[in-house]
Write a structure and sequence with these properties.
The chain has 194 residues and is of the alpha+beta class. The chain is built from 6 helices and 5 strands, in the order H-E-H-H-H-E-E-H-E-E-H. Helix 3 runs antiparallel to helix 5. The N and C termini lie far apart (51 Å).
Length: 194
């Protein structure tokens, strides 16, 4: 017996590790959730966009020529969450009951933090909707500032927590990222300065 799944036969272990979006024959499939009861579910995801200090100031002061970066990017994230099943193959279209996207400038970390939360009452979760909202909001920030800040970078897209459903609650362990360990305002070397 393997230590991975103690007390289980090899065939049971294989079934446990099998990917749900792939049939036994190796073909892609949408998971059948028709037997799962609808329950309240919520998921939260985050991303980070690194920016020059001058760019952060321009965003906060409303001086970006393309417009109000925070409002436009937050709206883009909400719209993206609503289109997730059109973008991600095999993702269920689900009725969203709430989507909130918040983008917060963080001068000490050198950028803006994107936090997206999605909720539903359904037979499947909303992790992908939260992740899609955070990703598209971050990409929108990048698009709106790329003309003035070529060093802008989208990074650290991750699910922060999920609540509800059969597996219950899950929270990502808090880990200090390398960027958070830098001195306030410190940035990595610019392109061409390495």
């Amino acid at each position: 017996m393997s230590d991975d799944f103690p007390g289980k036969a090899p065939s049971e272990r294989r079934d446990k590790r099998r990917l749900t979006h792939v049939s036994r024959g190796g073909r892609p499939r949408m998971v059948d959730v028709s037997a799962k009861p609808p329950t309240a579910r919520r998921a939260t995801a985050e991303a980070f966009v690194t920016l020059e200090q001058e760019t952060i100031s321009a965003i906060v002061d409303g001086q970006v020529t393309k417009g109000d970066v925070l409002t436009v990017a937050e709206m883009a994230g909400v719209m993206a969450a609503k289109r997730t099943s059109d973008l991600i193959p095999l993702c269920h279209p689900i009725p969203l009951t709430d989507v909130v996207v918040e983008i917060t400038p963080d001068r000490s970390a050198g950028g803006v933090r994107v936090r997206a939360s999605a909720a539903t009452v359904a037979g499947t979760g909303v992790e992908m909707e939260a992740m899609t909202a955070a990703a598209v909001a971050a990409l929108t920030v990048y698009d709106m500032v790329k003309g003035v800040d070529r060093s802008a970078t989208v990074r650290d897209l991750e699910l922060v927590e999920k609540i509800g459903g059969k597996s219950g609650e899950w929270h990502r362990p808090v880990v200090r990222r390398q960027a958070d360990k830098q001195k306030p305002g410190a940035r990595g070397p610019r392109r061409g300065q390495r």
